[in-house]
Amino acid sequence: LSDQTNLCHNVVIRLARSDDAVALAILSGDLGYTSSACDMARRLSLVQSSEGHSVWVAQSADGVVVGWVHVCARPLMQVDRQAEIEGLVVNPSARRHGIGRRLMEAAEAWAWRTGCGRVALRTNAARSGAREFYESLGYRLTKTQWTLQKDRT
Ligand SMILES: CC(C)(COP(=O)(O)OP(=O)(O)OC[C@H]1O[C@@H](n2cnc3c(N)ncnc32)[C@H](O)[C@@H]1OP(=O)(O)O)[C@@H](O)C(=O)NCCC(=O)NCCS
Fold first, then answer.
1. What phi and psi values does residue 65 have, to the nearest 5 degrees?
2. SS3 string of 98-151?
3. Mean pLDDT across the stretch 94-114?
4. Is residue 59 within 8 Å of 65, Cβ to Cβ?
5. Reduced to 3 states, what is the DSSP secondary structure of residue 38?
6. pLDDT at 150 over 80
7. Cα(49)–Cα(126) distance, rounded to whole angstroms?
8. Which of 44, 55, 120, 144 has minimal Cβ neighbours within 10 Å of its Cβ?
9. 83 near 120, Cβ under 8 Å?
10. Is the CB of 136 inside a 6 Å radius of any atom of ligand 1?
11. 130: Cβ below 6 Å to ligand 1?
12. What is the DSSP letter of 6?
């Protein structure tokens, strides 16, 4: 990440591989989900072996993975096939160089290629800049929701 000038142009977007697990885990921490490399390797393997999921990474010219996106298209009852962005993060020191945009372009291309008519996403309202980022890519706010969860006791 030393030369930031042409960072985005030198970044390659490719499918995630099992040997990316360490880098993906570190980036997951940047997203607010601390994960061990071991946990990440297990989850990545599960995601990649599941129908309708795709994980893309951004790799800089020096071989460092600086971002990832997970996109998924689950069959739903209420709408035809659509994709959802399950997670997206770029290394804090690589932000504002167009890498997030490139990752989203890869996720969208996958969605259209696999027959989705829409890409949807949910993002924590507390995430600074995330809404502006998605709106700059053409996403529009359609509703606000409550998120609830229950843990096994
Ligand atoms: C959101 C995130 C993925 C954006 O990645 P990025 O590589 O910095 O984004 P890009 O450089 O491709 O930005 C494209 C455009 O989005 C807009 N944008 C991006 N970040 C922004 C911010 N913090 N505030 C306002 N607008 C922003 C700008 O219009 C930007 O274009 P510009 O830099 O030419 O002005 C990154 O900030 C991140 O990882 N954030 C923490 C995790 C997160 O919020 N993930 C998304 C929710 S799950």
1. -80, 115
2. CHHHHHHHHHHHHHHHCCCCCEEECCCCCCCCHHHHHHHCCCCCCCCCCCCCCC
3. 98
4. yes
5. helix
6. yes
7. 32
8. 144
9. yes
10. yes
11. yes
12. T
- The C-alpha torsion from 108 through 25 and 20 to 53, rounded to 10°, is -30
Q: For residue 129, report the distance from its CA to the centre of ligand 1, in Å.
A: 6
CB neighbourhood size of 90 (10 A): 25
Exposure pattern of 52-74 as b/e (b: 16+ CB <10 Å)? Answer: ebbbbbbbbeeeebbbbbbbbbe
**Residue owning tokens 């035809």:** 80
Q: Whose CA is nearest to atom 23 of ligand 1?
A: 129
CB 132 within 8 A of CB 97: no
Q: Identify which of 40, 119, 128, 132 has the alpha carbon closest to the alpha carbon of residue 86.
A: 119
CB atoms within 10 A of CB 126: 7
Instruction: Please indicate whether residue 14, judged by its CB atom, sits closer than 6 Å to ligand 1.
Output: no
Query: Looking at the chain, how many residues does it have?
Result: 153
